[in-house]
Structures are given as C-alpha cells and as structure tokens.
Design brief:
The complex is a heterodimer of chains A (513) and B (357). Chain A folds into three domains: 2-181, Ribosomal Protein S5, domain 2, CATH 3.30.230.10; 196-430, Rossmann fold (3-Layer(aba) Sandwich); 440-513, no CATH class. Chain A is 38% helix and 17% strand. Chain A has 23 helices and 18 strands. Chain B has three domains: 1-73; 106-286, 3-Layer(aba) Sandwich (Rossmann fold); 303-356, Winged helix-like DNA-binding domain superfamily/Winged helix DNA-binding domain (Arc Repressor Mutant, subunit A, Orthogonal Bundle). Chain B has helices at residues 3-11, 16-29, 34-39, 41-46, 49-58, 61-73, 88-91, 124-140, 152-162, 184-193, 210-221, 236-245, 263-270, 280-286, 303-312, 319-326, 330-342, and strands at 77-80, 99-104, 113-117, 143-146, 167-170, 195-198, 224-227, 249-252, 275-276, 317-318, 346-349, 353-356. In chain B, the strands form two sheets. Chain B has a nine-stranded mixed sheet with strand order 1-2-6-5-4-3-7-8-9, sandwiched between helices. A three-stranded antiparallel sheet of chain B has the order 10-12-11. Chain B is elongated. At the A-B interface, helix 8, helix 15, helix 20 and helix 22 of A face helix 16 and helix 17 of B.
C-alpha cells in the first residue's frame, strides 16, 4: 500500500512543502528513509517504530520505503516523525479515513507515543498559509504559537493515539482545535522589568538613549567598568516603540526557528534584547551552521543588540555587522546553500576607554601604557564607526548621587516622547522604505535636514574649532533631525545642532594619547 | 673636518664617543677616503670587534654614495659641529653629537628654544597645564622643543602647531622609524612646519638606550626645560639632569601633592632644583619675551550659559554635577556646553568633564 501526506520544512525563515510518501510491501523486514534527511531525520525510524507499538497499534513486519519529497532539498530535525508514523499507519490500513491528506503534520515522537514540541512551527504555519494550506496538526506544546494566526484550522495533540482517533473521527474534533488569541489582548500585559526610574544620575547617557530610540540611531557608550552601561542598555528596549503585530510575528518566527521561544507565551511581545558575549563565534552571531539557525543578530531583529566590551570582539566579528547595519538583513552564504535572515536592530555597543578602564577617570588611576590605549581604541575601524551615530560617555556615579532622593524620570514618560517623535518620522517618510531618521539616504538627508544660514555657520565653526572629522557631518545632521523631532520643531535649530555635536566624542580625538 | 668620513662613521652607526676618537685619528693622518680609513690599523685597534665589523661591512663606495643621494632626495640635511647652523647652545655641551640629521626649518636650531617634557600619561590637569604653557610660549615666539613621545610631548607639539608656533621634535631613532608609530602624522606635520632632529641615520631603529640619550639634545637645544607633569621614576629625570649639567634653567609646575603624576615637579620645587612656575609669563619674563595676550573677544553669553560659567569658575565639573546645580534640562545644558566649547570659552575633557579655558 502507498500513502502520501504533507509536512513542512524550513530554509532560512521560509517554509517549503514536504511530501511524505510511505510504501509498504512484503518481503524481508526493512526500513528505508530517503530524501536528503540529516541524522535526526534518519533516526526517525526507531522513534516511529516504538511510538506506534507503544500507542497500541501494530507495526507490521514489512519492507518500508519512506520518501521525503522534494528529494533535493535538505530536511532537518525530528519534525517529520509524526507524518511518517501517520503514513505508516495509513499504509498499513490502521487509519481508514482518507481525510489525513488535507492536513499538514508537524511533530516529534517520543518512544511512548507522545508528541513533542518542534522548532519553527510559527514560520511554517505562516508560509503554509501563504501557499494556501489551511489544516494543520501540531504538538500541544506548540499550541500557543499557532494561536495568533487567523484563518487556519489548527489542531494540537499530546499523543499519536489521539491523532489517529482524530483522523478516524472517533473523538470530538472541536476539543482539539486551537483557539485564536488576539495579539492586542496579550501585548498589553507587556511588562518591562528594568525602568529608567531605577538608574540614578547618568543624565547625559539617558538623553542620548532617548534620542537613539527616537531616531533609530546606533549608540556607543564609553565608560569605566561598573558605571552602569549594561543597565542603561537593558532599559533601552523599554523606551522603544511597541512592536506591531507584523513585527512581533517576524520576531517570533525567528525565535521559533532558533528554538528560543517561550512556548507558554507563544509570541514575543517585547522588543528583543540580545547580548552575545565577546567570545562568540562569527557563526553564532550571523547564523547558519550545519543545522542552519538564525544567529544573535537575527534574534535581535526589531530590537536591541548589545555588544558589551566592543573592542574585545574579534575584528572579523565586528566587520560582519556591516551588512546588517546597512541593509537590515544578513545573507549567510555557504557551499550547500545561501540563507537570508532578517537582522534589523539597534546596536548599542559599550566599551572601556582603555584596557584597564580607568583612563580619564576622575578618581582612579589608569595603569595602561599609551601604546595599549592606542591599540585598544584603534580596534574600532572606520567603517563600523561610520554606522554609529551617537557616542556618549558614562562615568561612575558618586555615593551622593546613588542616594539622591530625587525621583528619576520613569521609562513611561520617555517612551511617550519617543513615540511622538517616531510618529513625526513615519509621516515624513511615508511612501519610502525608510521609517526612521537614522536610515535616511543621502538625498533624503539633503532634503529633510536643510540648515538655516545660522545653523550653517555654527556647523562651520564647530568643524574648525573642534576638529570634527568629515564622517561626522551627516551623522550630526541626522541626529540633529531627531532632536528637532523630539522637540516637535519643524526646522533644525542651532541648539539642536549643538546638542548633536556633543554626541560625537570619538571624532573629537580628545581621547587620543 | 672631513665631512664625508664623518658621515660614513655615523652611517656605520658608531657611538658618538668613538666617532670623536676616530675623527682625531683622521685629522692626524689626513685620511681622505673611506677605504684607507677602514684599512687603518689604529682605527682597527680603537674599535670593538662589532663596531669594526660594521665599518668593514658598510665600506662600499657605491652603496655609500647612493645612501648620500637618498638623504638628499628625502630632504634630510646633515648639520655637523663645524657648520654655522649647528646651534651654539648644543655645541658647547661636553657630549654634543658630532652631527645632526635634520628635516625641516634649520633656522629654528639657533632660535630661543624651550623644551616641555613630562609623563606619557598625563592627567586632565597635566593636559591642561601643558596646553596652556605650550600655547602661550609658542605664541610669544619661543620654539617649543620636545621628544615626540605620547602624552606631554605630543600635546606640546600639537598645541604649538595649533597656535601657529614653531616646534622641534628630537627623535630617539632615525627618520624612517618614527616612534611611537601613531605619531607619524604629527612627525610629518612637524617636518613641514617645524623641524625634526635626530643624531641617528634614517635607517637606525630606536632602542631603549637611545631615548635617554636624545634627552641630552632636547636639554642642550633649549634655554630651559619645563616639566609639567611627571612621575617619580619618569624618564623626564634624564632631561632634567642634562639641563642642570649644562647650566640651563629647569622649570616645574606644581601639582596636587596626592597626585603620583606630579611627584617629580613637586619634589624638584622642594629641593630648589627647579623654578616653580605658575603661569607662562613666569618663564617669558625670564627671557625678556612679552606674552602675547589672546585678544579677549567680548563674548556674549546668554543666561543659561552664564550659569554654567559660574559653576565652572569653581574648577572642573562633570556633566551630572552641572545638570544638578544649573537646574537646566539635559538637552539645553548639552547644547549650551557645546556652543560654549565651540566659542572656546570652556574645554571638554575625557569622562564628560568640563573646565574653563
């Protein structure tokens, strides 16, 4: 007997249809699994065999051939277990209803017949829906992920036995149907743990982060260890605008593929905050690898990528950030395949002013030699610095400041201002692909950052007196535009330019030894 | 004195003392060419095995003359003890170099020079003091001499060039090996607008022994030596020792007694080895120079800016302090500080600290 049913696979974040064909003939007992599967796919035969037997079904001693079509695309992971099991059961006529042909089966089997969660359910459902498939059978554990997708019939099960009963119409179908949840209902539950309210002092850094959030600018924080750089960065995602449903789906997709999704929550409602350590390898950052998974920069998509101790990252690691910072996606080209993952994030980098961290500090002595400092600072290459708009210094706060009774501004208030500035930008860039000031192209910068003669003059004196480098020019214009938006001002005023200039510390070379 | 032979001895990288002795023999025997020089028994006995080996190895007329041509092509001028350009101040010190390789404006050698030396890692205070003195001295017309090292040295050179003054940098190696490499651009600028000096041929690499030696040229070229900030064990001590040996003035700027980086100037002042100077005029008066006052433009400041200036009159302050006591919103404060800085009224230091200029 031959049976055919459907399942799904993934390349990058897009899915493709996989047909599972099971043929069962007499002869010596044997099991062949073809169709370019990896080891996890090949091992399915043992899991399927035990799962079928332990669910109370018969596993006839026959010659099995299972084909995963298309045969030339690589299949990964245990997601086909359930499909193969159902295929065998229908080929051996234990499932009589032909209904199973309408469903897409996703799920891993355990030896006792339970269905276990798999990675990437959400992106597979979304791609399948786009291809016109409506009916799905998925693991119960992945139920939440599926509940945000409308216009599909999705059924979630705990065991193989339930699936068979379902297909044979022995149980009430509606009991297993996944109920749709509205995104808006859970997005409101959004609680950010860290609030700017709890960060004492650091007014300059807070202001810089507010501007960064408002205009989508990348930030470099410079300061000695223990001055609160990481804390500030963690608060930062709280002042970014809320995720829209489309953005949330995109983020969830990526996290689902990486297997990093909180299955109880099912969808990601907060902007992600990723902080890979500086010993991370290039592949872990960009994604790819043998079992292609999105890397840290894609997991930070629509959120924040925080790189602590920026110069400690290896040079080629930092350079790999160039494409995503420019284009918003990363293309991982390997011999076997080329995958593109979205990676549009705000980069927050932090660094010490020197290897020991105390260079320029008011109360601690720096023990580094000038050569060490020079080498440390020169690790930041020009091209990467070109993509960072705001440099801000963070210094240790004093005990007095720490115990200051004055209330600090809570995240909520800052966020309101950011949201307003973003709204202005959305209006401004209507119809173009750009949605924030940081991403303005050169002609757009020319168009939207017109300077009055007064501003021109200020810029000119600033450049000669402060010895700014040429690369600072456009950065200053963009940041000034954001500052003007925050102030609700139509034109860029001199004070906006002046403030923007103060965030170009590293161009100013007062750090040089 | 036979110039060619002298150049050859320097080309063979003999130490100054040995060059002097060999030159005596050359005078005595009237040796004209390098070949007979190398063959000379007395010269051979005088030199150590290594030195003599180097002499023999380099003894190739063709290679040597192409080396001389290259010097000319690179714009390197050689000034020997007998040349008029050789500065008198240096000539009469007891271990004066026999010849100086120079790149730039030779006339600076005989002008009134003052050297500014100190730590390679100055504090904000040291930076401020160095810039203040270098700027004022250079504007008054003194030539600022230093050693192109990190820290105080390069700050003095940079500040001097910035105000349009003249500066001499004395290197611890040849011109092809600028040390630290990071200062290559600065060295090029000095060669263009000031003068680079070295007693070593261009191909010579600096070693840890050559740096203390070049300090004698720094001290020898100058009427006085100013120490702005230096630790107890700083190499600056050498420069000071040479300056005192040569009977030159030593000036020191006092610092905080807690600061490790002001230990040397403070202790020099205590032991009366150095004159305590508090402002550039103290030095200028001594040499009959008039301080050129920068025209204080009447600058208009608005109310917010006045508040900031008032707070800064108390000494350097950091951003959060200013924010707290000026009661200005952060964005206004930030733009005020930048405007004040652009107009040259205040100065920004690392770790978001500000001070009055």
């Amino acid at each position: 007997m031959l049976s055919k049913l459907m399942s799904f696979g993934l390349t990058g974040i897009d899915g493709f249809l996989v047909e599972i064909e099971t043929d069962l003939v007499g002869g010596l007992p044997h099991f062949d699994l073809v169709g370019l599967g990896d080891t996890a796919v090949k091992e399915a035969k043992e899991r399927v065999k035990s799962a079928i037997r332990n669910s109370g079904f018969e596993y006839p001693l026959k010659h099995y051939t299972v084909n995963l079509a298309p045969a030339d695309l690589k299949k990964e992971g245990p997601v086909y277990d359930l499909g193969i099991a159902v295929g065998i059961l229908s080929a051996s006529e234990q499932i009589l209803n032909r209904d199973y042909k309408n469903y897409i089966f996703l799920g891993e089997l355990s030896l006792d017949g339970r269905i276990k969660k798999v990675r990437g359910v959400l992106p597979m459902l979304i791609s399948a829906r786009a291809l016109g498939y409506k009916n799905f059978i998925i693991p119960k554990e992945n139920e939440r992920e599926a509940s945000f997708i409308e216009n599909i019939n999705c059924y979630a099960f705990n065991t193989l036995k339930e699936v068979v009963e379902f297909l044979n119409r022995e149980i009430n179908r509606d009991d297993y149907k996944v109920k749709t949840v509205r995104f808006e209902d859970i997005a409101l539950l959004n609680t950010n743990k860290l609030d700017f309210e709890n960060v004492k002092g650091q007014r300059m850094a807070k202001r810089a982060l507010e501007i960064a959030a408002a205009g989508g600018h990348n930030v470099l924080m410079i300061g000695p260890p223990g001055s609160g750089k990481s804390m500030l960065a963690k608060c930062f995602s709280g002042i970014l605008p809320n995720l829209t449903f489309e953005e949330a789906l995109e983020v969830t997709k990526i996290h689902s593929i990486a297997g990093e999704l909180d299955l109880k929550q099912g969808i990601i409602t907060e902007r992600p905050f990723r902080s890979p350590h500086h010993t991370a390898t290039a592949v872990s950052l960009t994604g790819g690898g043998v079992h292609s998974k999105p890397g840290e920069i894609s997991l930070a998509h629509n959120g924040v990528l925080f790189l602590d101790e920026f110069p400690e990252y290896s040079r080629n690691l930092i350079e790999t950030l160039r494409q995503p910072l420019e284009d918003g996606y990363i293309t991982v080209a390997r011999a076997q395949q080329t995958i593109t993952y979205p990676a549009s994030f705000t980069l927050i980098a932090s660094m010490n002013p020197c290897p020991c961290g105390n260079y320029g500090s008011k109360d601690r002595e720096c023990t580094c030699s000038p050569t060490q400092i020079h080498r440390y600072l020169s690790k930041l290459s020009g091209p990467i610095m070109d993509r960072i708009d705001i440099h801000v210094e963070v210094d240790n706060i004093t005990y007095r400041e720490l115990n200051d009774e004055n209330k600090e501004e809570p995240t909520k208030n800052i966020k309101e201002r950011v949201d307003k500035a973003r709204a202005i930008q959305l209006e401004r860039f209507k119809g173009s692909k750009v949605f924030c000031n940081a991403k303005m192209s050169v002609p757009q910068t020319k168009k939207f950052c017109k300077l009055s003669p007064e501003c021109q003059k200020l810029m000119e004196t600033a450049f000669t007196n402060l010895k700014l480098s040429a690369r600072a020019h456009d950065r200053i214009l963009k940041v000034a535009r954001t500052i003007a938006d925050l102030a609700g001002s139509e034109d860029i005023e001199p004070q906006h330019i002046a403030e923007a200039i103060s965030y170009r510390g590293l161009d100013r070379k007062y750090f040089s030894v | 004195m036979n110039r060619k032979i002298l150049m050859f001895l320097s080309y063979a990288e003999l130490p100054t003392k040995k060059i002097e002795r060999v030159m005596e023999i050359v005078e005595e025997k009237n040796i004209e060419e390098i070949k007979p020089l190398v063959d000379d028994k007395e010269v051979m006995n005088l030199l150590s095995t290594n030195e003599y080996a180097s002499l023999v190895k380099k003894c190739d007329d063709r290679v040597f003359s192409s080396y001389l041509n290259n010097l000319e092509k690179d714009g390197i001028k050689v000034v020997t003890l007998e040349d008029a350009e050789y500065p008198d101040k240096l000539r009469y010190t007891d271990d004066a170099p026999m010849l100086l390789y120079c790149k730039g404006d030779l006339s600076l050698l005989n002008k009134d020079c003052l050297s500014i030396v100190g730590t390679r890692m100055p504090s904000n205070y040291g930076r401020f003091v160095t810039e203040k003195f270098a700027g004022a001295l250079a504007m008054a017309g003194l030539v600022v001499v230093s050693g192109l090292a990190y820290g105080v040295d390069s700050i003095s050179h940079r500040k001097t060039l910035e105000v349009g003054g003249k500066t001499i940098a004395v290197l611890g190696g040849g011109f092809n090996h600028i040390y630290p490499e990071a200062n290559t651009n600065l060295a090029n600028e000095i060669a263009e607008k000031g003068l680079l000096v070295s007693e070593y041929p261009p191909f010579a690499k600096p070693t840890k022994y050559t740096f203390p030696l070049r300090n004698r040229i720094i001290a020898g070229l100058s009427l006085g030596t100013l120490i702005t900030e230096a630790g107890k064990k700083s190499g600056t001590i050498h420069t000071k020792e040479y300056a005192l040996d040569y009977g030159r003035d030593v000036f020191a700027v006092p610092g905080n007694i807690n600061s490790l980086k002001s230990e040397l100037p403070n202790s020099l002042i205590r032991s009366a080895q150095a004159d305590c100077v508090l402002e550039p005029e103290d030095i200028l008066l001594k040499y009959n120079y008039n301080a050129k006052k920068e025209e204080k433009r009447a600058v208009e400041v608005n109310m917010d800016e006045e508040v900031i200036i008032k707070l800064l009159k108390d000494g350097e302050k950091d951003f959060d302090y200013l924010a707290q006591f000026s009661k200005l919103p952060v964005n206004i404060l930030n733009s005020c500080l930048t405007t004040l800085e652009i107009r040259g009224l205040i100065k920004r230091m690392p770790s978001k600290t500000f001070m009055l200029n």
